[in-house]
Amino acid sequence: MKKILITGAAGFIGSNLTKRLLEEGNFVIGLDNFYTGQKENLKPFLNNKNYKFFEHNVIEPYDIEADEIYNLACPASPIHYQKDPIFTFKTSVFGIINALELSKKTGAKLLQASTSEVYGDAKIYPQNEKYFGNVNPNGIRACYDEGKRAAETLICDYNRLYGLNAKIARIFNTYGENMDIKDGRVVSNFIVQALRGEDITIYGEGNQSRSFCYISDLLEGLILLMKSDVTEPVNLGNPDEFTIKDFALYILDLTKSSSKCVYMPLPLDDPHKRKPDISCAKTKLGFEPKVKIEDGIKNTIEYFKTRIDKQ
Ligand code: NAD
Ligand code: UDP
């Protein structure tokens, strides 16, 4: 039985990864400080004899024996990571240093949740791993983007200096069950607004694009990457691209909602076009997203209906 440590375990991806790794017969240790994570997401595991949870801030060192570490701890939604940008930056930088030090000491394999945000407002399309990015280092998204870029730098230096094999997953917009109603990202906002009959808030003119990956496909990619010996950064996502305006109409259609679209100011430095080139993940990991957007979004709508009912 493998012992697997997940930081950010109470969050959207962390709780789905916990479920999947427990189902596969592993022992899972979760770590989280509930900055954006929800206690509700942990409920299904708390009585599982193969699960342990520690409330901890990854900015501070920790000492836990494990075979593998998934370092997911970091607020991921712009409204949350911009609320306390210094905390966000510290979480990325000290968080990865603490995970790398633990990996160096114990020999645990380590995977970092990096992000498509390392490409910033990309000048190439679709985005591949060779692109160095176009990030505003002084802007309101920099605490997240530059924090994640610095974390990648640290991983590559630890790998070179100490012979570690730490992995970098550049995750593109992912959605699904266990997202927080108040998360603030586009998928949760639009579905919750549509279900409640509230206005759908489109930022800017809605011509910017994102490409959406369902959670089970992302988990497959993360696990494949952890198993591999690939140490170069790998894009994980689904190239299924929508403009935000079209995405709003799509959600209205699937929820059969009569909500209206309203247009609000576009946040600063909001990337214009985002679509992953996943050829590296396909060739090196055999990764292939399988879930059609319609199925993934329908599952997510059903999930949000239950969360709204509980409020
Ligand atoms: P999330 O906000 O739902 O989960 C993040 C978790 O980390 C939360 O439970 C939060 O409480 C915890 N956390 C934050 N700071 C912490 C700290 N200092 N110490 C301990 N725990 C802390 O976000 P998510 O979507 O599940 O994202 C998980 C990871 O994946 C993040 O690192 C994020 O940057 C990355 N990522 C996610 C996406 C996506 O589309 N979901 C895309 C790119 C990258
Ligand atoms: N967005 C929007 N309305 C919302 C939330 C987000 O129009 O209520 C837009 C946002 O400006 C961005 C895209 O949707 O262009 C994706 O935003 P999200 O916060 O989900 O993630 P990002 O990819 O920007 O980190």
TrEMBL record:
What is its membrane topology?
Single-pass type II membrane protein
Under SUPFAM superfamilies, the record lists: NAD(P)-binding Rossmann-fold domains
Protein name as it appears in the record: UDP-glucuronate decarboxylase
Q: Which InterPro entries match?
A: NAD(P)-bd_dom (IPR016040), NAD(P)-bd_dom_sf (IPR036291), UXS-like (IPR044516)
Q: Which GO terms describe its cellular component?
A: cytoplasm
Q: Which keywords does this Swiss-Prot/TrEMBL entry list?
A: Decarboxylase, Glycoprotein, Golgi apparatus, Lyase, Membrane, NAD, Signal-anchor, Transmembrane, Transmembrane helix
The protein's organism comes out as: Candidatus Galligastranaerophilus intestinavium
Q: Which family does it belong to?
A: Belongs to the NAD(P)-dependent epimerase/dehydratase family. UDP-glucuronic acid decarboxylase subfamily.
